[in-house]
Specification:
single chain, alpha/beta, nine-stranded mixed beta sheet, 11 helices, binds guanosine-5'-diphosphate
Length: 420
């Protein structure tokens, strides 16, 4: 089931959970929208035939329509977001490129990312382009990584500014599955942590701290995540001990690894409390992003990886990188489904509850009006009945009167004749 070519096919990817949840949620809201249309025409019809009078439901129903349209719009834009932090040159850009199996972000000496860079999937037909905050509607075309690096270095950027790189999503599986990657300036550039957190972290589903296996975690890195932890409840944090290929020639490599692992777990479990010690082992990985990127690029091109680019024991590190990705995909899709769709579900439930209340109200009103009309009809029928009786009584009376008049006349006529 491993992906072929550009890593596009991976039917078993846990990321599919997000796509499926999004699709299902979308279908449910489409049904709710159809139901609102039905309710609208039903209510209009019964208003026209006069079952409910004097009540205007139009505004309420329009309110429901607007709400559902709004939810569906947000749902369409929902994505899974991962933000990478770490010191300059620890390999953040290289990790992102390796995960995307494409050299999208410039990396290496002279290409220090001095602002936030977001890589997101764009429509398939479009070429890659850049969007900057000062000109959010102007798509700046980028054809190559060199051009991108040039574009980035030619503008003066604040450390908390954002450049969006919109990449054709068909080219990268993770972008196609709605993952958005955010690369940050090195955490050693004395950032305004609060602004960084407010602007880039509050809607993040996963954080990856790219650490350098050649040194221990810095206090600045730790402080940053302490702050994130104060603002978000139990953020999902992975630690990548990157550049692990450089440790192959160390004598006591296993002891170094153990020491890193213990310190990282202490940070995640005891200091931050974002994970327990069992799950903690699935949050720390010893990798080489450079080796992962080089071997993947060659694998996708079908060319052999040049000798010398991969260090001794590279298979284990490549395997560890893939292992990290698997855990990352499971974590980000679960987290995003929960955080993003829970809100929609609550709002959807509220709309359907309000709709039901409206239909109940309509039903009760119709019933009342029908009862009133029936009562009116009955009253009229009784009145008619009474009138009919009165009429027949009157008729009998008149008939009798006429009869007696006729008899009187006859009597008078016959007595007059007799007299003659
Ligand atoms: P960033 O500043 O954190 O984004 O770091 P970059 O991704 O730009 O990487 C800085 C330099 O480190 C580049 O020259 C990379 O090729 C190199 N690099 C990144 N990851 C590794 C790795 O795992 N092993 C080795 N040996 N070099 C790496």
């Amino acid at each position: 089931q491993r992906s072929l070519g550009n890593g596009r096919q991976s039917p078993s990817s846990p990321l599919k959970l997000f796509g499926q949840a999004k699709k299902t949620a979308n279908e449910i809201f489409r049904h709710i929208a159809d139901y609102i249309v039905d309710v609208d025409s039903f209510v209009q019809e019964i208003c026209q035939v006069g079952y409910i009078e004097g009540i205007d439901f139009q505004d309420t129903i329009k309110g429901f329509k607007d709400k559902v349209t709004g939810i569906m719009e947000v749902l369409g834009r929902d994505h899974m977001k991962v933000v990478f932090f770490g010191r300059t040159s620890n390999g953040k850009s290289t990790v992102i490129n390796a995960m995307l199996r494409e050299k999208i972000l410039p990396s290496g000496i002279g290409h220090t990312t001095n602002c936030f860079l977001q890589v997101e999937g764009g429509t398939d037909s479009q070429e890659a382009f850049l969007l900057t905050e000062d000109q959010p509607d102007e798509q700046k075309s980028i054809q190559s990584i060199k051009q991108l690096a040039h574009a980035l270095s030619s503008v003066k950027l604040e450390s908390n500014s954002l450049i969006r790189i919109v990449w054709p999503k068909e080219k990268c599986r993770l972008l196609k599955e709605d993952v958005v990657f955010v690369d940050s300036p090195g955490i050693d550039v004395t950032p305004d942590l609060d602004v960084w957190i407010d602007k880039f972290c509050l809607d993040a589903d996963v954080f990856v701290l790219v650490s350098n296996a050649e040194s221990t975690l810095m206090q600045t890195e730790k402080n940053f995540f302490h702050k994130v932890n104060e603002r978000l409840s139990k953020p999902n944090l992975f630690i990548l001990q990157n550049r692990w290929d450089t440790s192959v020639y160390e004598e006591d490599v296993e002891a170094v690894k153990q020491q890193h692992l213990e310190r990282n777990l202490e940070f995640l479990v005891d200091e931050l409390g974002v994970t327990d010690s069992k799950e903690g082992y699935e949050r720390v990985f010893f990798v080489s992003a450079r080796e992962a990127l080089v071997s993947r690029l060659n694998q996708d091109k079908g060319t052999p990886t040049p000798t010398g680019t991969l260090q001794e024991g590279f298979q284990a590190r490549l395997f560890e990188f893939a292992n990290f990705e698997r855990k990352f995909e499971e974590c980000i899709s679960k987290s995003a489904v929960k955080t993003k769709f829970e809100q929609h579900t609550q709002r959807g439930k509220k709309v359907t509850g309000d709709l039901k209340a409206l239909m109940d109200k309509t039903f009760t009103l119709c019933l009342e009006q029908l009862r009133n009309k029936e009562w009116e009809r009955q009253e009229k029928a009784d009145e008619l009945d009474y009138k009919q009786k009165q009429l027949s009584l009157l008729t009998v009376e008149v008939k009798d009167k006429i009869k007696s008049m006729v008899e009187d006349v006859e009597r008078k006529v016959s007595s007059a004749l007799n007299e003659e």
